Amino acid sequence: MTAMPSRGGRGASGSRDGKTSTRKKFFVRRRKVCKFCAEKLEYVDWKDVKLLQSFIPERGKILPRRISGTCALHQRKLQTAIKRARAIALLPYATD
Amino acid sequence: MRLYDIVVLLTPDLSEEEASKVTADYRKLLTDGSAEIVRDEPWGRRRLAFPILRKREAYYHLFQVRALPALVTEVERRLKLSDQVLRHLAVRADEELKRSAKMAERLRIKAIKRPPRPPAAPPASPETADTPHEGGAS
Question: How many domains is chain B built from?
Answer without folding.
Answer: 1
